[in-house]
């Protein structure tokens, strides 16, 4: 790795990881990242490993893992715990499928309500509003 990526300020780290500085500070407060020591009279410096850590966190978030789940995954990153990581991913898959089922039910309900709204004519009470108020 080149020396430039081993000597990043927090701003440069944030830019390369495509996050903001506050995200990095938040990850540090949550224990997802360490906070490097500050040499006397200087600024903290970050390296390629820190950049990889931020990218790992963001990738896991995009897959729907919570920060607590990411902390658990980070403890498994040594490669010796693949079965445990797979179990976490399988549980996340179950969660995602449950959410999808719920979203499909919501979609069906909304389609029906929109159809009811499109079917009514004249000066009558809106079927959508009536349903949401529990009057349907």
Overall description:
With 136 residues, this protein is mostly helical. The chain has two domains: 75 residues, Multidrug-efflux Transporter Regulator, Chain: A, Domain 2 (Orthogonal Bundle); 55 residues. 62% of the residues lie in helices and 0% in strands. The chain is built from six helices and no strands. Helix 1 crosses helix 3. The longest helix is centred in the last third of the chain and has 38 residues. The N and C termini lie far apart (65 Å). The model has no long low-confidence stretch (mean pLDDT 88).
What are the SSEs and their pairings?
Blueprint: H1 10-17, H2 21-29, H3 48-62, H4 67-75, H5 82-119, H6 127-132
Q: What's this model, at a glance?
A:
The protein is mostly helical and 136 residues long. The protein has two domains: 1-75, Multidrug-efflux Transporter Regulator, Chain: A, Domain 2; 82-136.
Structural class: mainly alpha
The SSE order reads HHHHHH
What is the alpha-carbon Rg in Å?
A: 24 Å
Strand content: under 5%
Number of extended strands: 0
CATH C-level label of the largest domain: Mainly Alpha
Q: Summarize the amount of helix as a percent range.
A: 55-70%
How many distinct folded domains? 2
Q: What about the largest sheet?
A: none
| CATH fold title of the largest domain | Multidrug-efflux Transporter Regulator, Chain: A, Domain 2
